[in-house]
Amino acid sequence: MALFLALILVAVGLGIAGWVVKGLFFLLIIGILVFLADLVFGGIRIGRRHGRPRAAR
């Protein structure tokens, strides 16, 4: 979970830097790609967690 949140912060930071600083549009693109990769990574982790059967008591 910490890695997920850290990647979200990095993506937002790159996106803001790419949007604000003139000529660094590629940082905005990289930020968007990191954000999308983070969402896919988080979705895979959540999907695996729900797919496991519960242990019998």
TrEMBL record:
Keywords: Membrane, Transmembrane, Transmembrane helix
Residues spanning the membrane: 27-47
Name of the featured protein: DUF1328 domain-containing protein
Organism: Actinoallomurus acaciae
